[in-house]
Amino acid sequence: MSERIQPNRATGDFLELLEQSGYRWSRPIEGAGASLSPIPSGTTVLAFHYADGVLMAGDRRATAGNAIMYERCDKVIPVDDHSLMAIAGVPATAFEMARVMSHNFEFYRRSQLQPMSAEGKVRALSRLLKDNVGMALQGVGAVSPIFTTYDHQNKQALIYFYDMLGAEFQIRTHTTTGSGSPIIRGVMEHEDLWGVKPLAQRSRNEAALFAVRLLKTASLFDSATGQARPEDQIYPTIATVDADGYHFFEEQEIATLFPEAMKRGQ
Questions:
Q1: What digits encode the pLDDT tens for the residues 202-223?
Q2: CATH topology of domain 42-260
Q3: What Gene Ontology terms describe where this protein resides (cellular component) (predicted)?
């Protein structure tokens, strides 16, 4: 192996290793100017605290402008055993960002013989977003993610929201992003303040029912957010993060939840 691509065993920095090997995961297109066009974010993803941890959910539709390209896209992605990333923005950039994150965490674990801290994971995504600013300003690579992970040191599940420049914001209750997010943000706040009980006190089943209703509501007003289609076995993606790691709801479980969620007063 060339000396140039020796892994940085002192810090476990995977991104530095990528740069040493001549790969940079994101770089602006040379000669292209910044775009003032709106950031593409045709989707709805969300996360909120519930009684046992954090619930994260997203619709399944992928769009290109006004065209519906795919109805089975998974927008809640595992990054490691205790971390999930919900993506909104340009899919190619978002999926690659999630893959780099996953390799970053695993490289750190193997080279440092311990898992990366929750704070380190949060900052790692912030760093990727900062490195992606050039692409985002050119209008071809903007990503607006939600990241959730379990902090074993403080024994709590965490939610972070990021802006395009990489600033991270810890979310104490709930958050959402994507084109359908303005429609349901107020619903989440109203339900948390004046619903039957605060979101953080709801059971896993109650939290999942609420997530299904939120995504249904978003899909009624935002054409870029896909609706559930039971006749085609297409349902939202729902997952939780707690002390035991992440857990995705099985398709059959969501199929059972969906008609219950559509009933009034449940």
A1: 999 999 999 999 999 999 999 9
A2: Glutamine Phosphoribosylpyrophosphate, subunit 1, domain 1 (3.60.20)
A3: cytoplasm; proteasome core complex
